[in-house]
Design goal:
The longest helix has 28 residues. The protein contains 45 helices and 54 strands. By secondary structure, the chain is α+β, with helices and mostly antiparallel strands. It starts with a helix and ends in a 9-residue tail after the last strand. It is elongated.
Length: 1799
């Protein structure tokens, strides 16, 4: 009977998966034809064992199961199985939930029940009597027909997955599976020749997927919108058999088609949806899930035990039972155990037999004949896997992102109603997913998308940008588009599918499949993928072959015999993305960021945490056979990504609310408060920046079995290069055709053609990273990371208008506004950038072009060091000026050229020599190698190494660059001002605020939390006066604490850098950089190679008559070498070894720094070149030391930087044309700088409202309790100076004139470096400075006057500390000579050629003749005692050489108490506290911030005064203003008032000099040669000059502000240097002054007869010690010669006391940072002659004075009426001498006082 065969088959499935079922009742019901079972429970453990998923079934129920068997029509009607309402609930299996015991128990239970279930049917089959009327062949064919036509209908399938607070529920209304014919219509079919095909269809109706969130109790509070709602799809199954007796289909095709797939995700569902995707990825990579090892081993053992009974069975129809399913399990499990379980491929393939079983309805039929074939006779039949093709096709799919808004009901417990708003949608067309696999040896997955686009929908964040009333086109809403659409592409995505009428299966032809790796690569190329799919194509190929190259199926017998062959696995992923267009405008960016924020809004733990690599300490020895097998083949995973035609457009922000979104991404919080959003209006035209990439290819390869491979290779002492290569993850990036530029979106929504800013270029990047780094920690020679970057050529070109527009685009995104409104933009700027093609404007700005060539960078990291090297081939920058309509040709002006041959440019002779053209094989501009040691305990720290070499660079600072910088668009009407008057341009707003005199900085703080209490009226007023579009400040409030923290961070950074610098081995070579500064533009001639700056200058120098004046500055060649280093090539192979590594701290210092070939010269046209600074150089030594103070709690170091510089002699030459050229260049660049500052280009932050700098604002009215306030309306002295009640009144007499003064230099010398500070000490040694000034002689044509200034033995030291800066300068000697030079007459001298001399060149042995009666030995001595300055400088300022100057600048608050001469009083402690309180804000402190002091001492020197000579020399520095600067009018405005001569601004000055002689010789008179003894020279002698900032007899001041003066007097701070109110008075003492006349012959140098051009060099060359010793007697007689002086005025002394004005600086408001100057006292001056005045005057002296006055004044341009004077003097011819005596005026004093009332 048929029942005896069919009934056990059906009962085996029902009993296997359903609990508590009686087989007898089921058998009786089946024989009746219909079975109805209700409320059935599924065997959950069996389902878990069958599925082998990391899920646990919480419950599984079937409400009703119906089985209909038409026993009378089994050959023509199908068996129908109906399931009504099946529900299953799953959850993720916990890691420790099921231990090995429970797993084994579950497995054993399921296996035992399964064995029982399989045993009972077998016994039933054996007990059933064989019917002779039903032969086995007939039964077999009948059962095959029954199974092939079984219909399965599932109604209301419910699946639910729960995890944490996630609930994923799936409901399918109906799923119907039935058999169809060749037209895919429902029919009763059988497998017949010649097709041997079986077709089935599964229809799914109304599939709904929901994703909701449950609370802690497991209840869903409100339902979210479904992810997928009522989606219907159909599945077609196609089975092909090799012959009619085949039990296994040779080809299985399962393909699903969906017409429309509409997904919807809300902001609350997005984190849960990403969590589900992470679960799928974790399952894909095997990070979680998979059967446990115990389960796998136990199931394998059980299967092998069950397989022992297989050979004893006969191959007949009775062996078709379900028990034979164990054999494919045996094959699969044994295969998995042999290959160490390959993860998801094996798992997926294990479902293929079960899947075929469920579809065909008979398990045994699928596997008939396999049980006995393989074990009994392997040669007879080998197991072969079928080809399985799975496909999914979707015509249109959409993913909509929604934002939910909760609206609560009145009742607290009522559910919330959710209202969602669609803001973004992703639409895809023509989706294809195809999987082709044949067992484990072959797997291929292809995914393709024809078209994809994303578009904005409704408004977001209150901005109504895409609402219905806006009427914007759909093209404007699309911000992402890729590929084509179905209307143009067609149905290519369905090619060769079961839904394609042209496919082989639908035309009765057997399909052919490509199962070979090489053929697959050749067939499915990137081009073929893009032809079928337009947007996206993915091809994932995995193959497994043995070493002989045969198919893996041939080795199945060997696997069963436990012989493991050599397997070669290949895994390749290829991704291709077609034409991609991304438009990042405001609407798209805000939606994307909002999506990212919603996705980050969760607290889920990751599924798989990265585990720390554990290195096995005892690793077994490596097998040589295994190594040889690895050398032959190592499996890798290769991933290739190709992007084609990518376009990214970043538009100017139409609205910007990123300040409310970005803090959420970085983890911050948004300040509370509503966001006022202005009405949205589209901006057209909309400027945009666009980036285009023609092709970008990314390749990534990793070893397939990294742990096993690395553990083997790392155990080798010297692994081969091939093995090491496969132990890395390799990354390769190649970009072709990348370019960027500007475009504009017009009113139609389209974009204008690209205006390139970065022309097309290509680049490549390669990197590799070691796998499992923990295994390689002890192998120092193995690189862990390597990276190589190659950039053949990179260029940038832009006009100034384009940079303005790019800056506006960037600022629209970086500077948010409170209202979200956009910035306004000048229309003329847009018109200039996007001008119509072919239209040339009248004032076209030049285009700046820069190029970088042959950039190569390498980076390598090892366990011990990190190193990098690189080269930069060339850098060129030029300016291109466009041609105009008048026929002016386009010109090219080179600006920067590197490398350039600058070795000979420091000398002017290169202009007249033949210059070689720039070679194409020139060395690279920059080559460097850097090596930094890693911090490791196992390796020695050898210190970092830096090797660098820079070739010569030529720079042309052309005025065209100023033209480019100063370009400003024409002022026109700003767009959007009529539509949206709220927004104001950032730069224009700042100008308007300043011009109106408003205080925007105060108002900016009104939107934030108020820093101090303010009245409601004030807050209201300020808020109402502010427009809504004031830009929101981006930076936080700049306070003193932030400034202090930044300084602290900088010091910490220096401390960290010290560890690397102190061991740094440095080798730096910089060739000379030659800078050309032309006065006018120097375009490159067409005959010169592009960008050759020296060639261009040389061409202009020789070929152009009107060459513009050019200043050439040749910067020096620089060489820096650390201590003990030997020269190495700068480009080294990585890593490299230094011959002498630095091991100990400080060994790298000192550094030797050498500079050479520094020169400056000028090119003045007409082939004239004049030197300005002769070539020179220097050698310096840099040393850095550090120490850690014991009292430093922070552990920071103190650093002392010492620099010693030995300069070569400096020779400077100058003339008026050179000065004029330098002045014009300075004028050009200062005017450019001023205009740039005015335009706000150099202070970009000024366009953003900044908060006031300074301390944290306190109360506007500072507390002054307990003090008497004289004038509260204008000033509170107690708040700023101090309270008179804090101490007793201190009389001014405390600071007596006889108190010992203390200089600032003495006090700062005792101040040492503090902890964590950096101090700098520099010393400069200069042997000689020669300055030559050339000027034309006004009296003689073709004659030049040259003045030579020589300074010898110069030394300077600079000491910079945190609290003071000290500069000391000493000059050994200083001489000034002059001579006249004529091309015709040679060289001659006048006045001995001496202008200033500090030696005895002029005769110093002078005798003043005076009457005997007047020779008073004490008449020339000053009144009381030696001057204060002399006493101070004697002890603190040692004399070295001719001149010594010391300049000291110290912080007032640090040194003020040290300079106080009186003892400290306890009562001043309160004042100090008040001062500290006030100085919390630097502007609130009335005292100056810095205190300055100057100390000067000088040895005797002589000055020869000649006004005609000085006038000639001064004429060198007379310049004329160019015409184009004269035309510019001065800007109107009020003159700024400043107080320069005040006690706050003037430094403390101490001066002490020795004898000073001023000699004024008369002009030689040729007519009076006979009178050789005539006195012709006037001599003024000054015995000494001293100056000090303390007066012995202070002046009485006229006080304007008595309140301030009285407070300061009571506090005793009037005499304190640097106090708030300081009464500083300077005293100048001029001692031993006399005036007389002498003969020039007695004063002039002895060697006057020599040529006046003889300089000190020639004198030194003529020195002969032997000759001078022989001539000692004559030399002694010459030294004993004396000059007789006839007195005019005998010795007298003068004392001048000057008291500058006292100004008090009062803060108006601490918030504004402005101060008001209050005049306390005006200027005072007193002049005292402290000795008698004796005048002696003769007629000859009067004549001499008249002649000197006439010669000097006429030369200086003054008119002197000399005739009347001569007549008057002739009448006194008989008078021999006139004596005027002022004996009684010994104490004559002049005390004028000027009261200053204005300020």
């Amino acid at each position: 009977m048929l029942e005896s065969y069919v009934t056990p088959l059906l009962m085996s499935y029902v009993n296997k998966y359903i609990k508590n079922l009686k087989p007898s009742d089921l058998q009786l019901s089946l024989w009746g034809g219909d079975v109805v079972l209700r409320k059935l429970d599924l065997k959950l453990d069996v389902l878990e064992q069958e599925l082998k998923l990391p899920f646990t079934f919480l419950s599984g129920h079937i409400h009703e199961l119906r089985i209909h068997v038409p026993w009378t029509k089994l050959g023509s009607e199908p068996v129908v199985i109906t399931i009504n309402t099946m529900e299953c609930i799953l959850k993720l299996r916990d890691g420790d939930q099921d231990d090995h015991e429970s797993g084994s128990t579950s497995t054993s239970r399921s296996v035992s029940e399964s064995s029982k279930a399989t045993g009972k049917p077998r016994r039933l089959q054996q007990a059933a009597p064989s019917d002779p009327d039903l032969p086995p062949g007939y039964v077999q064919s009948l059962i095959r027909r029954v199974v092939n036509n079984v219909n399965v209908l599932v109604n209301n399938l419910i699946l639910k997955y729960v995890e944490d607070d996630i609930v994923l529920s799936i409901n399918i209304t109906s799923a119907d599976c039935f058999t169809v014919d060749d037209l895919w219509e429902r029919a009763f079919m059988d497998i017949t020749a010649p097709e041997l095909v079986l077709r089935k269809v599964i229809n799914f109706a109304d599939c709904t997927v929901c994703l909701d969130k449950r609370n802690a109790s497991g209840k869903i509070e409100f339902y979210q919108d479904p992810l997928l709602y009522k989606c219907s799809f159909r599945t077609r199954l196609h089975f092909s058999y090799d012959n009619i007796n085949s039990k296994i289909p040779s080809v299985i095709k399962i393909q699903t088609m969906v017409d429309s797939l509409k997904l919807s995700i809300t902001d609350q569902q997005l984190p849960m949806f990403i969590r589900i995707l992470e679960l799928i990825i974790a399952l894909y990579y095997g990070e979680i899930g998979g059967p446990r090892e115990a389960d796998r081993e136990e199931s394998i053992c059980h299967v092998r035990e069950a397989g022992t009974n297989v050979p004893g069975m006969d191959v007949d129809i009775e062996n078709q039972g379900p028990g034979q399913y164990s054999n494919p399990e045996f094959y699969m499990d044994s295969d998995m155990s042999a290959e160490n379980y390959q993860g998801w491929v094996s798992w997926a393939w294990s479902f293929v037999p079960a899947l075929v079983d469920s579809e065909e309805g008979e398990e045994g039929l699928y596997l008939q004949g396999e049980t006995g074939g393989v074990p009994n006779n392997p040669q007879q039949h080998t197991l072969k896997d079928p080809i399985v093709s799975i496909g999914f096709y979707c015509t249109t799919a959409s993913l909509t992102f929604k934002l939910t808004e909760s609206q609560a009901e009145s009742s607290y417990y009522s559910p919330q109603k959710v209202k969602s708003r669609e803001v973004m949608c992703l639409v895809q067309e023509g989706i294809t997913i195809e999987v082709l696999l044949m067992g484990e040896p072959f797997f291929d997955c292809q995914i393709g998308v024809v078209g994809c686009r994303a578009l904005c929908m409704k408004g977001i964040m209150g901005v109504q940008d895409f609402e219905e009333n806006i009427n914007r086109s759909e093209e404007e809403a699309v911000f992402f588009s890729c590929g084509d659409n179905l209307s143009s592409k067609g149905m290519t995505y369905l090619t060769n599918s079961l839904f394609d009428y042209r496919s082989p299966e639908n035309n009765g032809v057997r399909a052919e499949f490509i199962l070979d790796t090489v053929t697959h690569k050749e067939t499915y190329t990137e081009i073929a993928g893009m032809q079928r799919f337009g947007a996206f194509y993915l091809d994932y190929l995995y193959t497994m072959e043995n070493s002989s190259g045969k198919d893996f199926q041939d080795s199945s017998a060997a696997i069963l015999e436990d012989i493991v062959p050599t397997v070669q696995e290949i895994s390749i992923k290829r991704l291709v993305v077609g034409p991609l267009d991304i438009k990042l405008h405001s609407s798209a960016v805000h939606r994307i960021i909002k999506m990212i924020i919603c996705a980050m809004d969760h607290e889920y733990e990751p599924y798989c945490k990265p585990q720390q690599e554990i290195v096995e300490e005892s690793r077994s020895s490596v097998n040589p056979e295994e190594i040889s097998r690895l050398e032959e083949f190592i499996p890798t995973r290769l991933t290739c990504l190709t992007l084609l035609q990518v376009t990214i457009t970043v538009s100017m922000a139409e609205f910007n609310l990123l300040h409310t979104l970005m803090p959420l991404i970085v983890g911050g919080t948004v300040p509370p408060g509503p966001v006022n959003v202005s009405a949205f209006r589209p901006v057209r035209p909309l400027p945009s920046a666009q980036f285009q990439v023609e092709r970008m290819k990314v390749e990534h390869s990793v070893p397939m079995y990294a742990p096993e491979l690395v553990s083997i290779v790392s155990a080798l002492s010297q692994p081969s290069d091939n093995l090491l290569h496969h132990c890395y993850a390799h990354f390769y990036l190649k970009v072709s055709g990348f370019q960027a530029g500007l475009t504009c979106q017009d009113s139609t929504g389209g974009f204008l053609p690209l205006i390139p800013v970065i022309p097309s270029f290509s680049t490549a990047l390669y990197g590799k990273m070691i796998q499992m780094p923990a295994y390689w920690s002890k192998m120092y020679s193995v690189p862990t990371t390597e990276c190589i970057l190659e950039l053949p050529c990179f260029a940038v070109q832009a006009t100034r208008a384009q940079t303005h527009l790019l800056q506006a685009i960037c600022q629209s995104w970086t500077h948010g506004t409170l209202s979200g409104a956009t910035l306004t933009l000048n229309e003329s700027l847009i018109n200039e950038v996007y001008k119509a093609p072919g239209v040339k404007s009248l004032d076209q700005s030049p285009t700046l072009e820069g190029s970088l060539q042959n950039l190569e960078l390498k980076f390598c990291s090892r366990a011990t060091v990190k190193c990098a090297s690189g080269t930069v081939g060339a850098v060129k920058v030029c300016a291109r000026t466009p041609g105009s309509l008048e026929g002016v040709k386009e010109s090219l002006v080179p600006l920067i050229q590197g490398p350039s041959d600058t070795k000979e440019l420091h000398m002017r002779r290169w202009l007249n020599e033949i210059r070689k053209p720039e070679s194409l094989l020139a060395p690279d501009l920059l080559t460097f190698s850097v090596q930094v040691p890693q911090q490791s305990d196992n390796c020695r720290n050898s210190g970092a190494v830096l090797l660098a070499s820079v070739q010569g660079i030529a720079i042309n600072v052309d005025p065209i660059f100023c033209t480019w910088l100063l370009y400003q668009p024409h002022r026109g009407s700003n767009r959007q001002q009529q539509q949206n008057p709220g927004p104001v341009p950032l730069t224009k707003r700042r100008e308007d605020d300043i011009s109106l005199g408003s205080t925007p900085l105060v108002q900016q703080t009104s939107n934030q939390a108020s820093d101090y209490a303010s009245s409601p009226v004030k807050t209201k007023t300020v808020t109402e006066s502010r427009p809504l579009s004031i830009p929101l400040k981006v930076m936080p409030d700049t306070q003193v604490s932030s400034l202090t923290s930044s300084e602290e961070r900088m010091k910490e950074l220096i401390a960290h850098a010290w560890d690397a610098v102190k061991r740094l081995t440095l080798q730096l070579e910089l060739q000379s950089c030659c800078v050309f500064l032309p006065n006018d533009s120097l375009p490159s001639p067409s005959t010169i190679i592009f960008g050759d700056i020296p060639g261009t200058v040389r061409s202009w120098y020789h070929n152009q008559a009107s060459m513009p004046g050019t200043l050439v500055v040749c910067l020096p060649q620089i060489s820096v070498v650390s201590a003990g280093h030997k020269y190495m090539e700068p480009l080294q192979e990585l890593p490299f070894v230094v011959s002498k590594p630095i091991l100990e701290e400080g060994d790298a210092f000192p550094w030797t720094i050498s500079l050479s070939q520094f020169s400056v010269y000028t090119l003045l046209g007409q082939q004239r070149s004049l030197s300005l600074v002769e070539p020179m150089g220097c050698t310096s030594t840099l040393a850095v030391t550090s120490h850690k103070p014991p009292n430093c709690p922070e552990g920071r170091h103190s650093f002392v930087v010492c620099l010693h510089v030995d300069l070569q002699p400096v020779r400077v030459k100058s003339s008026n044309p050179q000065i004029q050229l330098s002045y014009e260049l300075l004028l050009n660049w200062t005017s450019t700088w001023a205009r740039l500052q005015k335009q706000g280009i150099l202070r970009q932050t000024s366009s953003i409202p900044e908060p006031p700098t300074g301390a944290t604002p306190s109360s506007p009215v500072r507390s002054s309790a307990g003090t008497a306030v004289p004038d509260t309306s204008t000033y509170s002295p107690s708040a700023d100076v101090g309270s008179p009640t804090e101490g007793d009144s201190v009389p001014a007499g405390d600071d007596g004139p006889f108190a010992d003064p203390v200089t600032l230099e003495q006090k700062t010398s005792s101040i040492g470096g503090t902890s964590g500070k950096v101090s700098l000490w520099m010393q400069w040694m200069l042997p000689k400075v020669i300055v030559k000034l050339f000027a034309p002689d006004p009296t003689t044509k073709k004659t030049e006057v040259c003045m030579i200034s020589e300074l010898e033995d110069l030394s300077a030291s600079v000491d910079i500390q945190d609290v003071y800066t000290k500069i000391k300068c000493k000059v050994g000697s200083f001489n000034i000579d002059h001579y006249r030079c004529s091309m015709e007459e040679g060289v001659r001298s006048s006045c001995g050629g001496v202008v200033l001399s500090c030696t005895d060149k002029l005769n110093r042995r002078t005798v003043l003749v005076r009457p005997v009666s007047k020779q008073d030995s004490f008449s020339h001595i000053s009144g009381f005692f030696s001057p204060t300055a002399a006493k101070v400088l004697e002890g603190s300022h040692q004399q070295h050489g001719f001149l010594s100057i010391t300049y000291t600048q110290a912080v007032t608050k640090n040194v003020r108490h040290k300079l106080t001469t009186r003892p400290e009083r306890p009562t001043r402690s309160g004042t100090t506290t008040a001062s500290q309180r006030v100085t919390a804000d630097p502007l609130a402190d009335g005292s100056p911030q810095y205190l300055r002091e100057i100390l000067l001492t000088a040895q005797p020197f002589d000055v020869v005064l000649s006004c005609p000579l000085l006038t000639t020399i001064v004429g060198i520095f007379q310049t004329t203003v160019p015409r184009h600067f004269k035309d510019r009018g001065k800007s109107a405005g009020q003159p700024t008032r400043s107080h320069t001569l005040t006690s706050r601004c003037l430094p403390l000055i101490y001066i002490n000099t020795s004898l000073i002689r001023v000699i004024c010789p008369g002009a030689p008179d040729k007519t009076e040669d006979l009178h050789a003894n005539k006195e012709d020279t006037l001599v003024l002698k000054l015995g000494s000059l001293s100056m000090a900032p303390q007066a012995d007899n202070p002046l009485t001041r006229t006080v304007l502000r008595k309140d301030l003066y009285k407070h300061a007097l009571n506090l005793g701070i009037l005499r304190d240097p640097g106090s708030e109110v300081e009464d500083r008075q300077y005293q100048v003492d001029l001692q031993s002054i006399n005036i007389g006349t002498a003969q020039w012959e007695q004063l002039k140098p002895e060697k006057e007869g020599t040529k006046g051009g003889a300089s000190a060099d020639s004198e030194r060359n003529s020195q002969n010690p032997a000759l001078e010793w022989n001539m000692s007697s004559s030399i002694r007689r010459h030294q004993e010669r004396r000059a007789i002086l006839t007195p005019i005025v005998t010795d007298f002394s003068v004392r001048v006391t000057a008291a500058p004005a006292i100004i008090f600086s009062k803060n108006l408001s601490p918030d504004i940072g402005q101060a008001e100057d209050l005049v306390v006292c005006g200027h005072s001056l007193e002049v005292n002659v402290t000795s008698s005045l004796d005048f002696y005057l003769s007629i000859a002296q009067v004549h001499l004075l008249h002649q000197l006055l006439k010669d000097n004044m006429v030369a200086m341009g003054a008119t002197v009426q000399g005739t009347e004077t001569e007549e008057m003097l002739c009448g006194l011819g008989k008078v021999q001498c006139v004596v005027v005596s002022f004996i009684l005026l010994k104490d004559m004093s002049l005390k004028p006082q000027r009261r200053k009332t204005t300020h």
